[in-house]
Amino acid sequence: MTTGRHSAVELDPALDDYELAAALVREAGQLALLMRMGGLQADRKTSVSDVVTAADRAAEAYVLEQLRRCRPEDGILGEEGSSVAGSSGRTWVIDPVDGTFNFLHGSAYWCSAIALKRDGGPDTDGGPDTDGGPDPEVVLGAVYQPEPDKLWLGGESRPATLNGEPISGPSATPLAELCAATYIHPTWLADPRAAMPWHAAAVSAASLRMFGSGSCDLGRVADGELGCWFQHSCPEWDWLPGKAIVRAAGGDTAVVRVNGLDWFIAGGPTAVRELGVALTSVPQFA
Hints:
Oligomer: single chain
Strand order of the largest sheet: 4-3-5-6-7-8-9-10
């Protein structure tokens, strides 16, 4: 009954992109939370910690339905398989439940996230993103964490906010004085290609946090609760929503390539620069 009520909420196509993004993540997050309260089972994707639930799929289906009605010319890319080609040169990137392992086990540290990107925007090398590069141009991002009722929103034409209030953004504090949020799957710690740069960055920070939801982490980097963030091999739905908000809050972001892996970095300008130096300081494998 509750699921049907939320999946039937039709959003107004007249909403601007920011209002639409905020409404989508709020509705998707509330839908997922209510489904969890009713009991869920999970299917394994790539590992015991990489899982998907019926709530992930239902929330993505809801967002897909609303976007196809409200923005029919835009493309859509979703973590759980949604893929719609658009004609507008813009694509919505959706992650209905980021932090599914946390979500499934009763933690509050998960969220619903969405970004709007430009197709073929600048890549990390400053040129056109014609090669499917890892860091496309992002217009806006929205991240909603249902249980604490936190909604981060921001983008190119709107400063970052938390629940509608402006946030000041990350500071210029050196990395050695900051708490760094990060994530690395245990299997990657056995691979020196990832373990060595991760260790070099990790020991450069004052302290570490590993919570299991990149978008929740990046919202907290944007509002200053966490000092900075780094992680390798992020898909667009784990990176772009938070990237947009951090940049809208006045922070910096970067992507550096080490031993064939792309490392995604966010924080204040000093921390981003120092994380990049640490990650690239390790021996390079052929």
